[in-house]
From TrEMBL:
InterPro entries: PNGase_A, PNGaseA_N. It comes from Rickenella mellea. Keywords: Signal. It comes from the Eukaryota. Residues 29-354 form the Peptide N-acetyl-beta-D-glucosaminyl asparaginase amidase A N-terminal domain. It holds the Pfam family PNGaseA. This is Peptide N-acetyl-beta-D-glucosaminyl asparaginase amidase A N-terminal domain-containing protein. Residues 1-18 form the signal peptide.
Length: 576
């Protein structure tokens, strides 16, 4: 009695008896000034039951009590959600004025008291959108049907940090242009294939432009890193996995020419393969999907002619025809900086060295015993230079380069009861403006998944994940740069049963964060069987250790709705 009362108090759970499991993604708190005046407004409150095609659409108006709109030192969002029952992970997509600003997803609930999570998201770079009245959309397409009864009760607030002498206004672009469906009834996500193009007219005095790409695989592309090259997929039992191979490149094209690309991070959602491994600590990225930053400034000389230009988003594979399965969701937000003079910018692209597609190789070896090992490698090199002259006469020599490499090894062993993936994704991205770095992205996202099927009918399996996110990124000269080193070792066992899925899991996590403003954060947190077994937090952004009291209840049998690679058990819904 005493300990659960104490726990209820410590957990901050409202209500008499509910002891909700606190889910979370390991992440740094937003690097915003704690001592600044803060104004919090509620943006929306909505329970997403059966909500397919029924996004929450609200009128947004900037607060005026933390300084002139737009003068803020920063903005963060607080998305707090409770849920109970059985439900799949769902995408949660936030957009403001047709610009996607945050892609998240939902942890899967538990039955009974259910779960609660809060994610704090730094949206300072979207101040140009938050400075004026607009339309805010939260798209969370949930389904209720036999066996799936979990609803998501959501509250979204925004906190504005007033600027002051100590905390100056955040630097910002002049406008943000979306590459999206331009819908105000949902989050405007583009589904590719097919490739998507939008005609965009830029201000004639544009002097810099930066694109942020949002991209994640969905449906038969959810486990894209497990998809097998077409030349080998027929050697596997039908339904083991999907074709089109495991390599994916997200491309942004200007008038049909490649402007920049991203080799994406593999976000695993909380129903992914072993749902019980992602509870209470979600897979890294599930609540805040990584995005990718490109410098579009080299194309400014072309974009400033006052005419519409075609901007295209595409996701391609290492197959001969570069096609993928259905589907990826993509959008882009383009931060535009204009000159103080209204005279048109001039200039030219002086060097363009970019192939339409990455260079790829696919090799494999099949054993007499049916073993199959397949390797897909890719490299990508882009080098573009431009001379840009602003209306006010400033010259900018821009150099933009990307050097990316990728390798994916799949082992299908012992009659495919063993399915292992070893993927490496690394890159170095650099743009300089008059030799000063503008966009920097050095990254490494190694991923190893060992998936083992434990019984003949394939209903029991284990998987162990070793996944890292090491990234030094400077998104643009006016957006705070940071270095994150994160590693997640997770895994467990799971069984699908008509009477209710069950499984267990452990998750060990380390994260360090440091940014160019001098903020630091580190966290080491482990979980086993729904229980936090170790938690240490440090650095200037820390809010006190331990943040999560040891959870008093534990069960070795954790239910959940599961999805995993291939068709054999695809779409299995979990307990009724
Ligand atoms: C986030 O919002 C929830 C309510 O929606 C609130 O209980 C919680 O204190 C907020 N967290 C922070 C850090 O502001
Ligand atoms: C479970 O979810 C339902 C639907 O959202 C809600 O009415 C109910 O209060 C929740 N129960 C608990 C214990 O949170
Ligand atoms: C969003 O709305 C547009 C119409 O404005 C529609 O074409 C599109 O299919 C919708 N997308 C989703 C994911 O519901
Ligand atoms: C873009 O504009 C060109 C010329 O005006 C037109 O031919 C093309 O169809 C447009 N493309 C899209 C995607 O709207
Ligand atoms: C496949 O890889 C496994 C693990 O490295 C190895 O034991 C096996 O001999 C390989 N088989 C073939 C046919 O390459
Ligand atoms: C291989 O697995 C299939 C089921 O996926 C099974 O029918 C078959 O008997 C297995 N073969 C051997 C040699 O174990
Ligand atoms: C799968 O096989 C196991 C024994 O290996 C059995 O207990 C279970 O009931 C079977 N499940 C289904 C859905 O056939
Ligand atoms: C996966 O298996 C390989 C051996 O094939 C092992 O070296 C590696 O540590 C395993 N990875 C995980 C995450 O357990
Ligand atoms: C996490 O760490 C614990 C103890 O430190 C260990 O028993 C467990 O196997 C680890 N889990 C994974 C998935 O590496
Ligand atoms: C999870 O379940 C498997 C299979 O029942 C068992 O071997 C393993 O010890 C369990 N793991 C933990 C951490 O309890
Ligand atoms: C949860 O973890 C803590 C710390 O390791 C431990 O003391 C406690 O016994 C665990 N609780 C359960 C129910 O496993």
């Amino acid at each position: 009695m005493r300990s659960s009362l104490l726990a209820a108090l410590l957990l901050g759970v409202v209500g008499s008896h509910a002891v909700r499991l606190i889910d979370f993604q390991v992440a740094q708190p937003p690097p915003l000034p704690k001592d600044a005046k803060q104004c919090t407004i509620q943006i929306l409150e909505r329970t997403f039951g059966f909500s397919f095609g029924m996004s929450e659409v609200v009128a947004y108006a900037p607060p005026t009590d933390c300084g002139t709109p737009g003068s803020w030192a920063g903005i963060s969002l607080n998305f707090t959600v409770t849920s109970n029952g059985t439900q799949f992970d769902r995408l949660a997509l936030f957009s403001l004025d047709e610009v996607e600003i945050w892609r998240s997803s939902t942890p899967e609930p538990t039955r009974g008291d259910g779960i609660i999570w809060t994610y704090l998201k730094d949206v300072t770079r979207f101040i140009p959108l938050f400075s004026k009245p607009g339309t805010f959309v939260l798209q969370l397409d949930n389904l209720l049907e036999a066996g799936l009864d979990g609803q998501y009760a959501t509250t979204l607030t925004a906190t504005f940090f007033a600027s002051s002498f100590i905390h100056p206004p955040a630097k910002k672009s002049n406008s943000i242009i979306p590459i999206s469906l331009l819908s105000n009834t949902n989050a405007s996500l583009i589904s590719v294939p097919p490739d998507f193009s939008l005609n965009v007219t830029f201000p004639r005095n544009t002097v810099e432009a930066y694109a942020e790409l949002f991209a994640s695989g969905n449906g038969n592309e959810e486990f894209w890193y497990f998809n097998t090259a077409n030349q080998f997929v027929s050697q596997l039992p039908a339904g083991t996995t999907f074709g089109q191979g495991p390599f994916r490149e997200v491309r942004l094209l200007v008038d049909g020419r490649v402007a920049g690309v991203a080799f994406p991070y593999a976000t695993i959602f909380t129903g992914g393969i072993i749902p019980s491994a992602w509870r209470p600590i979600t897979s890294y990225g599930a609540l805040d999907l990584p995005t990718y930053f490109l410098d579009l400034t080299p194309f400014v000389p072309i974009l400033v002619d006052g005419q519409p230009h075609s901007l295209s988003l595409s996701v391609s594979s290492a197959e001969d025809d570069h096609t993928i399965n259905q589907n990826w969701f993509v959008t882009a937000a383009i931060q535009v900086v204009t000159d103080s003079s209204s005279r048109p910018t001039t200039g030219s692209i002086t060097k363009y060295d970019a192939q339409p597609f990455a260079l790829t190789t696919t090799t494999g070896s099949a054993g007499a015993n049916g073993d199959l090992n397949i390797t897909v490698d890719a490299t990508r090199s882009i080098h573009i230079e431009s001379e840009i002259v602003s209306g006010s006469g400033k010259r900018n020599k821009v150099v933009w380069s990307q050097q990316l490499s990728y390798s994916n090894l799949q082992n299908y062993l012992q009659n495919t009861t063993i399915q292992n993936v070893f993927q490496s994704t690394t890159g170095s991205v650099l743009s300089t403006h008059n030799k000063i770095p503008a966009v920097v992205d050095k990254f490494s996202y190694p991923l190893n998944i060992n998936f083992t099927v434990l019984n003949a009918n394939g209903t029991s399996f284990s998987a162990f994940f070793d996944h890292s996110y090491d990234r030094t990124v400077l998104p643009a000269p006016f957006i705070l740069g940071s270095t994150i080193k994160e590693r997640q070792l997770a895994g467990g066992f799971f069984t699908i049963a008509a009477t209710g899925n069950f499984g267990n899991g452990t998750s060990n996590n380390t994260l360090t964060y440091v940014d160019l403003a001098g903020n630091t954060y580190d966290r080491e947190v482990n979980a086993a069987l729904n229980n936090i077994t170790f938690d240490h937090e440090g650095g200037s952004l820390a809010r006190g250790t331990p943040r999560f009291p040891f959870f008093p209840k534990s069960t070795a049998s954790i239910s959940g709705a599961v999805r995993f690679p291939g068709l054999r058990l695809h779409g299995t819904k979990g307990e009724v």
